[in-house]
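2024-03-11 09:14:02 INFO worker-7 job=invfold-0412 stage=load source=structure_tokens
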């Protein structure tokens, strides 16, 4: 990363003064996460992009045009399976970039990381727009897949360490608020993209290129506002009247010491939590991708009051149950988002280890129950099980930063979280492969469509039980893993930390103003209105399911 950057971005210049209101930091984090969270919603572009040349129908490539040919062809349309590689790259690059540059982020500070994230994510969308205009898929892979994926990783972890340091009394709630934004990004971005594509579509253009340009511009404004809203507390800051928990009964899992990121690869507890996250995400992410076809194939015509199996339905009936299934997917997205805040906040009361124990025990029981509720034809039990499962899937993402801070300390928790996200990248491949290939295998054996997911549910149950065992094995760290007083002092020097706001003002040559209450309200309004609009649009889809 470049070293010669404007001093306005330097970490020592964003240390908050004594009058700063810490509630200004969560909306700054949300502003970034709501933008990069659109990565979840990129599938809204696949269908129109698959007919970018043919407009009404895809202009199919010949059998001689393989995947490499599709990267450079200008004479035929891309297949949806080819476009899906962008989605895969998002999460592979998110995990790897967070792992690679997490240590740099701790020293450079959240503002600089947020600005780089905005440049990568929005700049990547602009490069993709050029790729659509030239019909060069390699440019889209480079723009959104690689450069955008790096922006995803930096943007995702940019607020983690800062929020945990501002909210030592509510670590789970603080990270839950930000990571809820990542889950909500698609809830805002998908309907916005659909509306923009309708606006820009013409008889000769599907409108995706113009949509990318507009969304990149809007996202850049929001992400830069979020980046410049970041402030870090002086070293050792605590909320008024709050006392750090002592390592007594019930608090043994919360340390007041700190582990250096360079050591975590060799710490058994890190790999146990890596497996905990990987198993939780693998089970959930595989279901997310297949939620719509699963509901349709399991219940068939029952969804619209017709006593027919999926394979016996005509085209109008198939279209009708697809609409119902879209509402089911929207309902799951609401539980995914709400679960991030609910479970992370609850973990402040229950403890992280206990919270993950609930995820695995309750999740395994729910997955195991799905074949039975499907066989009984109980849509209510089937849907309720997956709603709770998806809430815990989202809750797992939001709770794990606080889990890491409890075990490894707060000094380098953002960098450690970045390395842990390699578990997400792994799960992004493992989960869908298990669900998709098991479905294909079951179909090849001639098993009825309504039963092809039964074996998969049992496999996912087993994965959660593996996660449960790993979680039960997590213990407090031995003393040898923590930094000594001298090592910690050196790390704080490299991270440009100041022990007080007065030190920060001397370093920067300027005062840090107190926060006007109106500014806090305006910041929350700025992220709250788009989020409320996204919830409203999602509820419209959910209404189709209940209707």
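2024-03-11 09:14:09 INFO worker-7 stage=emit residues=547
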């Amino acid at each position: 990363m470049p070293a010669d950057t404007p001093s306005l971005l330097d970490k020592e210049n964003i240390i908050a003064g004594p009058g700063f209101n810490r509630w200004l930091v969560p909306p700054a984090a949300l502003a970034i996460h709501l933008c990069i969270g659109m990565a979840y919603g990129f599938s809204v572009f696949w269908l129109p992009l698959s007919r970018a040349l043919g407009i009404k129908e895809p202009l199919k490539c010949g059998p001689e045009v393989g995947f490499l040919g599709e990267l450079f062809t200008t004479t035929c349309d891309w297949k949806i399976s080819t476009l899906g590689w962008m989605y895969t790259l998002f999460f592979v690059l998110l995990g790897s970039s967070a792992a690679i540059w997490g240590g740099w982020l701790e020293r450079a500070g959240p503002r600089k990381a947020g600005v780089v994230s905005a440049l990568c994510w929005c700049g990547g969308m602009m490069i993709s727009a050029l790729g659509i205009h030239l019909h060069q898929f390699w440019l889209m892979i480079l723009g959104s897949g690689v450069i955008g994926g790096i922006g995803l990783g930096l943007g995702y972890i940019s607020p983690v360490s800062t929020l945990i340091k501002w909210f030592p009394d509510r670590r789970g709630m603080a990270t839950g608020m930000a990571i809820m934004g990542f889950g909500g990004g698609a809830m805002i971005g998908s309907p916005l993209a659909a509306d923009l594509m309708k606006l820009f579509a013409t008889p000769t253009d599907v409108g995706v290129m113009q949509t990318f340009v507009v969304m990149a511009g809007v996202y850049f404004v929001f992400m830069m506002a979020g980046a410049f809203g970041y402030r870090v507390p002086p070293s050792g800051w605590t909320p008024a009247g709050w006392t750090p928990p002592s390592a007594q009964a019930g608090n043994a899992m919360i340390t007041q010491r700190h582990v250096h990121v360079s050591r975590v690869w060799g710490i058994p507890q890190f790999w146990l939590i890596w497996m905990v996250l990987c198993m939780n995400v693998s089970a959930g992410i595989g279901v997310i991708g297949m939620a719509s076809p699963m509901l349709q194939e399991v219940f068939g015509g029952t969804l619209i009051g017709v006593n027919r199996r999926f394979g016996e339905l005509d085209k109008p009936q198939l279209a009708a149950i697809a609409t119902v299934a879209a509402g089911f997917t929207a309902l799951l997205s609401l539980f995914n988002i709400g679960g991030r805040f609910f479970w992370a906040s609850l973990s402040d009361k229950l403890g992280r280890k206990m919270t993950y124990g609930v995820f695995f025990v309750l999740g395994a029981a729910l997955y195991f129950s799905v074949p039975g509720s499907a066989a009984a034809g109980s849509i209510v039990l089937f849907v309720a099980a997956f709603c709770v499962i998806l809430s815990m899937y989202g809750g797992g993402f939001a709770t794990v930063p606080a889990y890491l801070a409890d075990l490894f300390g707060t000094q380098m928790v953002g960098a450690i979280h970045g390395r842990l996200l390699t578990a997400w990248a792994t799960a992004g491949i493992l989960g869908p492969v298990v669900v998709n290939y098991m479905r294909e295998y079951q179909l090849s054996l001639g098993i009825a469509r309504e039963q092809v997911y039964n074996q998969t549910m049992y496999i996912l149950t087993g994965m959660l039980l593996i996660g449960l065992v790993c979680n039960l094995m997590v213990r407090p760290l031995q003393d040898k893993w923590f930094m000594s007083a001298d090592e910690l002092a050196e790390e704080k020097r490299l991270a440009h930390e100041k022990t007080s706001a007065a030190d920060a003002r001397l370093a920067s040559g300027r005062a840090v103003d107190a926060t006007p209450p109106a500014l806090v309200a305006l910041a929350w309004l700025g992220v709250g209105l788009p989020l409320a609009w996204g919830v409203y649009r999602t509820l419209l889809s959910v209404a189709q399911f209940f209707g």
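2024-03-11 09:14:09 INFO worker-7 stage=report msg="The two ends are 52 Å apart (CA to CA)."
2024-03-11 09:14:10 INFO worker-7 job finished
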